[in-house]
Request: fold
Amino acid sequence: MSRYQTEAIRKFEALKSKKEVTILAIESSCDETAVSVVRNGREVLSNIVASQIDIHKKFGGVVPEVASRNHVMAIAGCYKEALKEAKISENDLDAIAVTYGAGLIGALLVGINFAKTLAYALNLPLIGVSHVHGHISANYISHPNLTPPFVCLMVSGGHTALLKVDDYTKIRLIGSTVDDSVGECFDKVARVLGLSYPGGPNIDRLAKSGKNVIKFNYHEPLKDTFNFSFSGLKTAVVNYVHNNEQAGREFSAEDVAASFQELVVDELSEKAVRCSLKENCKTLVVAGGVGANSRLREKLKGKCEKENIDVFFPILKYCTDNAAMVGSMAYYYLKSGIGLSDLTLTGKPNVPITI
Ligand code: KG4
Ligand code: ZN
Reply:
């Protein structure tokens, strides 16, 4: 074993009982280059996000190779900025954390290689974090008093799932999408309506001036289960728009957005509440980019109030990708003695949710 690794194991063990743990975290799984400093899993000392949205907008979605190149250009600057904003030096850091998956492989590798280099140069333990677990942690940095157990509705660009979070690192999958993620579905519908990438926030905005009056032609998805299916609805909306365009019929894009969004929000909120009741768990936590959706927030709050369930959403800046959530989850990995990686750490396009 290398001298670096022996030292990393020793330091990792010592951190389990250290009172103040300061972690520098890196996130580059998709189109945000992000670096953050987080103390004790809850206190965000800095949160730097360099978004590539304007670059990918031109292409209507994320172009993996373009994302990787832009991560390379942005990452060193984000790192310097994160230390500066946190008002600390490299010597104050206890560990380096990085998202190792799920995500775009080339994009992940930029963050991973930067993290490995830092860990080696500063002689610090390296902690590989699952991006999806990071999204759960976005709630710990948003709500200081929130602790497991809870049911989590995970709604991101890559995942749609119901999870039971029994403890910080005891996470079990209850149901998940059998086809598209809900974020993909929002993005596709936005695209067919001519809205720019990322589509979710634009559908959210457009739907506010529309009415839920359109009945799309599709089979209602999977009842009596905690799995989701969105591809049928997605195709039905695309067909509705194309059929009208081809026939030269006018239609309201606002109504399409509102009707589509209402179906999705109904499906997500009904299953999330039913799952909480079945698990006998009165705390429901939403995670991931689609958690920023204003109608989902409104509807879920209403349903939860009726059932006496406390519902939590991350504050908006932590809903979408950031490194603060990764630094938070790295702390809980560390306290549970998991996640210590060596310098062979590599990116994974897919990572199982359950731990
Ligand atoms: O969690 P996230 O930032 O990235 C992944 O890990 O995938 O989620 C990105 C997704 C995109 O599909 C985006 O359109 C969607 O979250 N999104 C929204 C909203 N804001 C972001 N979807 C619906 N309503 C929003 N307000
Ligand atoms: Zn994400």
Notes: The pocket of KG4 (ligand 1) is lined by residues 30, 135, 156-158, 183, 186-187, 198-201, 204, 288-290, 292-293, 320-321 (CB under 6 Å). The longest strand covers residues 43-51.
